[in-house]
Design brief:
The complex is a heterodimer of chains A (about 350) and B (about 325). Chain A is mainly alpha-helical and about 350 residues long. Helix content of chain A is about 70%, strand content about 0%. Chain B has one domain: MetI-like fold, CATH 1.10.3720. Chain B is built from 13 helices and 2 strands, in the order αααββαααααααααα. Chain B has a two-stranded antiparallel sheet. In chain B, strand 1 and strand 2 (about 80) form a beta hairpin. Classes of the chains: A mainly alpha (about 350), B mainly alpha (about 325).
Chain lengths: ~350, ~325
């Protein structure tokens, strides 16, 4: 009797659209050729610099792709052209993004000195030499206003999500729709609204008015994200809680919300990231102040207004200060995003 | 013989909320209706503060384009009209959409169908991050980095396409033009349009795409026949969300567009403005009566963007529901 042994290794199934070695070689050749064309264009025409070179590359890529594949017929050729166009378009889109990060870092780091993050502008005019003054007052003001705004907006946003997902009230659909539409309220309108109520009523700009304007802008983000998060909670958990005789209130506060606590934290962080750089509403509500302050009844500094007001002066030192503020602000947004992502990936792993 | 007892009546099961739950539900509902209250309050207060302007100027407020108050103490010396600003808002937002949508489509397709797998998550995260860059940073970048470039491009466009009315200019000054502002806005709204489009494209039925391969089609064939038609409404919704953003943007437009009170369709000329930047510009030294004018302008802006966003929300939700 013979026994058959299967020694052949079964090849893993391949999808025809996976990158094979030949496509990679083709891609590299294509990019090299197009890049060469770009530098030729740089040399012989008026198009200069990186952008001129890139324009050459962007034109050359689909053309070379077409020339290289025309012999296979229109179907293949159109596929290659589409691939090259989509890739070139994406690269084009990425240029401004990269440029923003690079420029903010390059120009912003010039404003930095040893005590940039701990000094304020109390005794320093914006046009003063760069080794004086700092952004401490702006950081402090932004943190204070964002903190107060979160204390109001995060509970309200989570409650709105609870209303939609847990309570499933009569207006659930409408609340959902309105929070979505509310995220499109122009930030300056939020500022005007707070100006026309809080600022006029209390007779002056104040940190608290700024916070309230931020609440309006933060609420939709928190509500939307929390809603998505609450939907992840499996219904079995709720049923189990009800079966043990718990009320809906107890189920929500002791079972549902703790289960997704980290997700709700993500929602809060995203909400903060959304409003931390808001400028327009703060012009109308919290105004600006040059020294460190924690008085919520008075005008207060903030990073966006620090940038905005330094930029308006036209002086080169002031403009450098604006870039420095931008670097700090971008850093804050970056950190918030890193936190949000870390929390949410940890949540997903659970 | 046994007598059969009649079976007991079925116990009636009633769901009811305990008093605790009633309080809880009432409390949550009140908090949830806060967003509704805010929207209504915004409209109400802006109308209340700006009502005098609407009654003083009527439709002229929307159809004329002059903004001056000769004597800040005297309301009768004022002429307010935001036609130029409304036109400016629409022009800059239109430029933004026209540039952003094709690129957003391509970027979404690239991330979802063309990029290598290891890049996909990173690119999606990058998209979220770029969407969160504050507008003031876009503004300063547009003002310092983009402005000189666009001046060059505008001069070139004007040189060769002068015969098209929108590219002609009276004087060859190409500084802070609607073209620059629109281009900057397109860069700003690209992340949101792309991420909505990407989300919808990613939900295109994979088996249909696979079927096009099975029939011998190419990748582009699959995308053209399945993914793009499937994602059309999502793209439209995303574009409208972007339009809402572009119409209401303040700081970036303030920094990149010269505020001039005349209706200007020549997009390369250094004159224009939008409603939001009008408010930011005039707010600083405005008299009490002028503030009322700005409130009225704010109300108009609020209503327009709200309408655009309502439509966008309906379209995006419908696109998600098909999925």
């Amino acid at each position: 009797m013979t026994t058959y042994q299967y020694t052949d290794v079964v090849p893993a199934p391949r999808r025809p659209w996976d990158h094979s070695r030949s496509t990679m070689i083709r891609t590299v050749t294509l990019i090299v050729l197009a890049g060469l064309f770009g530098s030729l264009l740089n040399k012989f025409t008026g198009l200069s610099g990186f952008l001129g070179w890139y324009v050459g590359l962007a034109i050359a890529v689909p053309v070379i792709a077409f020339v290289g594949s025309a012999r296979h017929g229109w179907n293949i050729a159109s596929d290659r052209i589409a691939t090259s166009l989509v890739s070139v378009a994406f690269a084009t889109v990425a240029i401004p993004w990269v440029s923003i990060f690079v420029e903010v870092y390059k120009k912003g780091s010039k404003a930095f000195h040893a005590s940039y993050l701990t000094d304020d502008m109390r005794i320093t005019p914006s046009s003063d030499a760069l080794q004086y003054g700092g952004v401490a007052h702006a950081i402090l003001g932004t943190l204070l206003m964002v903190l107060i705004a979160s204390l109001i907006a995060v509970p309200l946003g989570i409650l709105a999500a609870v209303y939609i997902v847990e309570v499933k009230g009569r207006f659930a659909k409408m609340v959902r729709f309105l929070t979505q539409a509310m995220s499109g309220v122009p930030s300056i309108v939020a500022g005007l609204f707070i100006y026309s109520t809080v600022v006029i009523f209390f007779g002056g700009f104040s940190a608290i008015a700024g916070s309230l304007a931020l609440v309006i802008l933060m609420l939709p983000t928190v509500a939307r994200t929390s809603e998505e998060v609450l939907k992840i909670v499996p219904d079995e958990l709720r049923s189990a809680s009800y079966a043990l005789g718990a009320t809906q209130a107890r189920t929500t506060f002791r079972v549902v919300l703790p289960t997704v606590a980290s997700g709700l934290l993500t929602a809060a962080v995203l909400g903060v990231a959304r409003v931390v750089g808001e400028t327009a509403p703060l012009i109308l509500t919290s105004s600006y102040f040059v020294a460190k302050s924690t008085n919520i009844g008075e005008p207060i500094a903030s990073l966006p207004i620090y940038i905005f007001s330094s930029l308006g002066l036209g002086d080169s030192n002031a403009t450098t200060r604006a870039w420095g503020g931008s670097l700090v602000l971008l850093g804050v947004v970056f950190i918030l995003f890193a936190i949000a992502r870390t929390i949410s990936t940890r949540l997903r792993r659970k | 013989m046994q007598t059969l007892e009649t079976p007991p009546d079925q116990r009636e099961i009633r769901a009811y909320f305990t008093p605790v739950d009633k309080v809880f539900r009432g409390f949550v509902s009140t908090a949830a209706l806060f967003s509704l209250a805010v929207l209504v309050l915004i409209a109400a207060f802006l109308l209340y503060r700006g009502f005098e302007i609407f009654s003083d100027f009527g439709m002229k407020f929307l159809t004329t384009s002059k903004w001056e108050i000769l004597n800040p103490e005297d309301a009768s010396t004022a002429t307010f009209g935001i036609a130029a600003m409304l036109v400016g808002s629409v022009i800059t937002a239109t430029i933004a959409i026209v540039i952003a949508v094709p690129f957003a489509m391509a970027a979404a397709l690239f991330i979802e169908y063309y990029s290598p797998k290891f890049l996909r998550t990173a690119l999606t995260a990058l998209l979220d991050l770029v969407a969160a860059i504050p507008s003031v940073i876009y503004g300063i970048w547009g003002y310092v980095v983009l402005l000189p470039l666009v001046e060059d491009w505008s001069a070139t466009l004007n040189k060769y396409l002068d015969w098209i009315p929108i590219f002609s200019v009276r004087t060859p000054i190409f500084g802070r033009s609607p073209f620059l502002a629109g281009l900057l806005l397109s860069i700003m709204i690209l992340p949101i349009v792309t991420s909505v489009a990407r989300e919808v494209y990613s939900q295109a039925p994979r088996e249909l795409v696979d079927a096009t391969y099975a029939l011998g089609g190419t990748k582009w064939g699959g995308i053209k026949t399945v993914v793009l038609p499937f994602g059309r409404s999502g793209l439209v919704g995303g574009a409208m969300l972007g339009l809402g953003r572009a119409l209401g943007e303040t700081v970036a437009v303030y920094l990149t567009l010269n505020l001039v009170f005349e209706v200007n369709f020549k997009i390369l000329a250094s004159a224009g403005g939008n409603v939001a930047s009008l408010i930011a510009t005039k707010f600083g030294e405005a008299s009490a009566y002028e503030i009322k004018g700005l409130m009225a302008a704010g109300l108009v802006l609020f209503l327009v963007t709200l309408a655009v966003n309502f439509m966008a929300t309906v379209i995006v939700n419908r696109a998600r529901k098909i999925v």
